[in-house]
Specification:
There is one protein chain. Helix 1 crosses helix 4 and helix 5 runs antiparallel to helix 6. With 511 residues, the protein is of the alpha+beta class. It is flat, with a radius of gyration of 31 Å. The protein is built from 13 helices and 25 strands. About 7% of the residues have low confidence. 24% of the residues lie in helices and 26% in strands. The strands form 9 sheets. A 6-stranded mixed β-sheet has the order 5-4-3-6-7-8, sandwiched between helices. A 4-stranded antiparallel β-sheet has the order 12-10-14-15, with no helix packed on it.
């Protein structure tokens, strides 16, 4: 008694509507990152917007890691209140905390947030209110994803003044957006598979399930908490679609969500259940029974008996994966070490391999010793670790450098390891500049694009390395990607170790 349905329909509500704000509130990013923005261009856009709409009240709230000030300007007297000088004379310093903005505390027809969207301190998202939110920037390093999340379902947009002319920007800001905010069932028997809210388009696709009997969908349009339109759609339960595989539609919609939000095992189980090709399942053309046996694939019904006669039954790996999830860290590591030892002994039968020992740390006297950000153990009342784990135990631990799965004494290293303490770093604006001149063979250059924006590049002993690109940054033992300056502040660095040559490859491979 459950029907699967899918439908295209045209929204009864307009996608956009005109706005004419009389009260405008501006949150102005006054942090040190303002150096990457074109302040004059942003002020010029704001001035033209106010003039175009004849806005009567302008409230400016500058912020960095905290809200700095609140300045109110009235524009009725020819707009000679010199608010533009107020913005130009502002002192731009400190970090950026967008989470300090709470739009619920302000009464306004529209909100502008002038920022590049890169929050470097505290909470990273403002608390939304009920008015439209527009994010405006002129930075080449703006975080577009974060800015779109800030505008959200408020009906506002993201305005990039680097790629948009003033007239285009004004036209965009003249309109607000409606969203499909909610869908309810009049009889409570219909379930929609879509995640709401969704932006409006010319036609909207919906799918879901409905139980026995007719029903009516009640669709509400609007933005934030405001409802601008309601549409009702009658769903008869007796419509049939002969020849259509409509029941497969939920699987296709689920497939799109899985690719961006779930782990590999969930995707694998989905592919097996729905018989769909995913990033973790394969599509193989099988021509004979031997192929099913070779690739360990479940045969179709017509070949099951022949496979059984040959003694082949597909191995089900789901039980094994469940056991892996229930196993503790030591069991998983033990199985990995055994697999490693089996392979390494094929190359060298005399290799000692990896030896693991489970220790009851609660009942032994143990203190932690930190070696180059890798935590090891030294014991006072139990036997000392074996030499094949941490190198020679006769010397001082400070003379031992851990490299990958092994260890070496510092004097036996063939490559270079340089460590710079945080107190030795120059007070530059980023990590790369702070390293300049500190490490032999490390070259820091500035790549200027000729438009007032530059980026520092790091080369370690030339460019003829395995990876050929930027060096790999490891933050507290974890390799990271992207701009290192977006992940850590210079003042928070305790020390930086620069590892080169064979030791670098031993630790992290070709990266």
């Amino acid at each position: 008694n459950v029907n699967v349905f899918a439908m295209w329909f045209k929204p009864s509500c307009e996608t956009e509507f005109e706005i004419h704000p009389q009260k405008l509130t501006v949150f102005w990013d006054a942090s040190s990152s303002a150096g990457s923005r074109d302040i004059d261009k942003e002020i010029n856009f704001l001035k033209q917007f106010i003039s175009f709409h004849k806005t009567k009240q302008l409230t400016i709230i500058p912020f960095n890691h905290d809200l700095i000030d609140t300045a109110i300007f009235y524009t009725s007297a020819g707009f000679n209140s010199r608010w533009d000088d107020y913005l130009r004379d502002m002192k731009y310093e400190g970090a950026t905390q967008l989470g300090k903005i709470d739009l619920r505390n302000f009464s306004s027809d529209i909100f502008f947030i002038f920022t590049d969207g890169n929050s470097t301190y505290g909470r990273s998202r403002p608390i939304t209110g009920t008015a439209h939110v527009y994010c405006v920037h002129s930075s080449s390093s703006a975080n577009d994803i974060a800015l779109k999340q800030i505008t959200g379902t408020s009906g506002g947009r993201v305005i990039n003044l680097r790629t948009t002319s003033p007239s285009q920007a004004i036209a965009i800001n003249n309109k607000g957006e409606n969203w499909l905010m909610s869908i309810s069932s009049s009889k409570g028997r219909t379930v929609i598979d879509q995640t709401l809210p969704v932006p409006l388009s010319k036609n909207i696709f919906l799918n879901g399930t409905m139980f026995a009997g007719d029903d009516t969908l009640v669709i509400k349009y609007g933005y934030n908490n405001k409802v601008t339109g309601i549409q009702k759609i009658y769903l008869p339960a007796n419509i049939e679609c002969p020849g259509k595989r409509i029941e497969r539609i939920p699987a296709f919609r689920r497939f799109e969500e899985l690719l961006t939000s779930y782990d590999w095992e969930t995707i694998l189980e989905f592919g097996l259940k729905e018989k769909m090709v995913t990033a973790n399942t394969a599509f193989i053309v099988l021509e004979k029974v031997e192929d099913y046996i070779k690739y360990n694939i479940a045969p179709p019904k017509e070949l099951e008996k022949e496979c059984e006669d040959r003694g082949y039954v597909k191995k089900d790996t789901r039980h094994e994966r469940r056991q892996m999830r229930l196993a503790d860290d030591y069991d998983v590591l033990d199985r990995t070490a055994k697999a490693y030892n089996n392979k390494i002994k094929r190359w060298d039968k005399n290799s000692p391999g990896i030896e693991l020992t489970r220790t009851d740390f609660e009942n032994s006297s143990i203190e932690k010793v930190e070696i180059n950000n890798l935590v090891t153990q030294s014991q006072s009342s139990v036997p000392a670790p074996s030499a094949n784990l941490f190198g020679s135990t006769n010397g001082s631990l400070s003379e031992v450098v851990v490299v990958g799965y092994s260890s070496q004494q510092r004097r036996s290293l063939t490559g270079a390891v340089n460590t710079i303490r945080g107190s030795e770093l120059s007070p530059a604006g980023n990590v790369e500049s702070a390293l300049a001149g500190k490490v032999p063979g490390l070259l820091v250059t500035s790549n200027d694009n000729g438009m007032g924006w530059s980026r520092n590049s790091v080369r370690i002993r030339g460019i003829g390395r395995i990876s050929g690109g930027e060096p790999l940054y490891v933050l507290d033992g974890t390799p990271v990607s992207g701009n290192i300056n977006d992940l850590i502040n210079l003042s928070d660095i305790e020390n930086i170790s620069v590892v080169r040559d064979n030791e670098a490859a031993a630790l992290f491979g070709s990266r």
